[in-house]
């Protein structure tokens, strides 16, 4: 049980200590909140971009199970699906960053792994807004 504060001076000292601690926690919270907004280092800096990783998976001389593990389908099925999507008239725009095959790979990878957008954006080396569009 806390000891009751008897003198006025002790009471003032206690209030000042509590207010100082409260201000310190508020300043710390604000600093932690705004710090990520001022970090100017690049986030997606992996040696393999999403395009390079997909090219590695689609390499006919690579292990056939790699694309199956990542995308949930075999190499020839993935290529046939790309062909079917293009046959239906869905083509890449001329100024997009992500081609149709990479867009499909992002979708399939997300479905198969169940990872959050942050993890998928790190794997494919694109921003969260690019991945989620």
Automatic annotation (TrEMBL):
InterPro entries: DUF8040. It comes from the Eukaryota. Keywords: Membrane, Transmembrane, Transmembrane helix. The keyword Transmembrane helix applies. Residues 45-132 form the DUF8040 domain. Pfam families: DUF8040. The chain crosses the membrane at residues 12-34, 67-86. This is DUF8040 domain-containing protein. It comes from Mycena metata.
């Amino acid at each position: 049980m806390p000891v009751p504060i008897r003198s006025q001076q002790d009471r003032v000292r206690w209030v000042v200590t509590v207010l100082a601690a409260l201000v310190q926690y508020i300043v710390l919270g604000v600093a932690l909140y705004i710090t990520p907004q001022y970090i100017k280092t690049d986030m997606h800096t992996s040696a393999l971009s999403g395009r390079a990783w997909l090219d590695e998976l689609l390499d006919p001389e690579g292990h056939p199970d790699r694309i199956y593990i990542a995308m949930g389908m075999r190499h020839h099925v993935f290529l046939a699906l790309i062909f079917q999507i293009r046959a239906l008239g869905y083509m890449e725009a001329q100024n997009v960053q992500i081609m149709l095959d990479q867009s499909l790979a992002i979708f399939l990878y997300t479905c198969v792994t169940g990872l959050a957008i942050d993890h998928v954006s790190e794997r494919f080396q694109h921003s969260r807004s690019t991945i989620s569009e």
